[in-house]
């Protein structure tokens, strides 16, 4: 079973997807890390992350340990990730990785195009959103927690610019799949968001499925 969790930056996708994976006993893949690791490699090389030749080479050379680098978060990494993510050759190079991961044992994957491109046949697709201001506040709090001083207004502007790039690109733009369940987490903390998602998942898969019983 594959569960697709998509949505814009800092909507709470990862927090929710990780929790769903634990509850269902499925592996979890944060697909944003793939794009972040490729973007990071280009930054290391002093190259432009929008350089299609170098970015494709970096995507093809990606190794699992690259996803564990400590420097994949923060404004520079955010920007580089969304620049390489607009390149069709990079997306193509990362597609098999994501599909192999999901097909091996089932999985919960979060990203932008899981329900539309990577696993369009997934039985459950969630599209998680929250207001721009709330998402910026969450990201700003995260930065502060890591000791990074940032202006809330600047975080909001960068988040909006990245969402616009992700939704506006030609290759696998961010958008809800036609059969995605929408979950607005603006007024929900992580616990309440999980409870709401869990009830959507159960509703979609059928309340009496053996494998969902007793997992709450
Ligand atoms: O994966 P994505 O960028 O969509 O978001 P996340 O990393 O799951 O969540 C971003 C931040 O918001 C984290 O610090 C979460 O703890 C927090 N969060 C929240 O405040 N309320 C939620 N309903 C979900 C996440
Ligand atoms: O955590 P946050 O939502 O801020 O970002 P992320 O999920 O780590 O993704 C970083 C960037 O990778 C996004 O802004 C997208 O440009 C790209 N991405 C994508 O294009 N497709 C995916 N399935 C996942 C991420």
TrEMBL record:
E.C. code: 2.7.4.25
Location(s), subcellular: Cytoplasm
GO BP term, example: pyrimidine nucleotide metabolic process
CDD domains to which the protein is assigned, alphabetical: CMPK (cd02020)
Main location, first listed in the record: cytoplasm
Pfam assignment, any one: Cytidylate_kin
Family: Belongs to the cytidylate kinase family. Type 1 subfamily.
GO CC terms of this entry: cytoplasm
UniProt lineage: Bacteria, Pseudomonadati, Pseudomonadota, Alphaproteobacteria, Acetobacterales
Listed name of the protein: Cytidylate kinase
Chain intervals with Basic and acidic residues compositional bias: 209-216
Keyword list, A-Z: ATP-binding, Cytoplasm, Kinase, Nucleotide-binding, Transferase
Superkingdom of the organism of origin: Bacteria
Coiled-coil ranges (or none): none
Main EC class the enzyme belongs to: transferase
Positions annotated to bind ATP: 7-15
Reactions mediated catalytically: dCMP + ATP = dCDP + ADP; CMP + ATP = CDP + ADP
């Amino acid at each position: 079973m594959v569960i697709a969790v998509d949505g814009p930056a800092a909507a709470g996708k990862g927090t929710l997807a990780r929790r769903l994976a634990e509850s269902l006993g499925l592996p979890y893949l944060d697909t944003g890390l793939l794009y972040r690791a490729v973007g990071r490699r280009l930054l290391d090389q002093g190259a432009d992350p929008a350089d299609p030749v170098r970015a494709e080479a970096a995507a093809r050379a990606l190794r699992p340990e690259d996803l564990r680098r400590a420097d994949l978060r923060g404004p520079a990494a955010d920007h580089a990730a969304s620049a390489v993510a607009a390149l069709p050759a990079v997306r193509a190079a990362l597609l098999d990785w994501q599909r192999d991961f999901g097909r091996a044992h089932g999985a919960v994957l979060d990203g932008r195009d899981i329900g539309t491109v990577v696993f369009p046949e997934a039985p459950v697709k969630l599209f998680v959103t929250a207001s721009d201001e709330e998402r910026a506040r969450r990201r700003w709090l995260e930065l502060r927690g890591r000791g990074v001083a940032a202006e809330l207004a600047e975080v909001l502007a960068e988040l909006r610019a990245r969402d616009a790039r992700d939704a506006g690109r030609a290759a696998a733009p961010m958008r809800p799949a036609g059969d995605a369940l929408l979950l607005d987490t603006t007024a929900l903390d992580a616990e309440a968001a999980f409870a709401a998602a869990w009830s959507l998942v159960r509703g979609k898969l059928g309340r009496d499925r053996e494998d969902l019983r007793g997992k709450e």
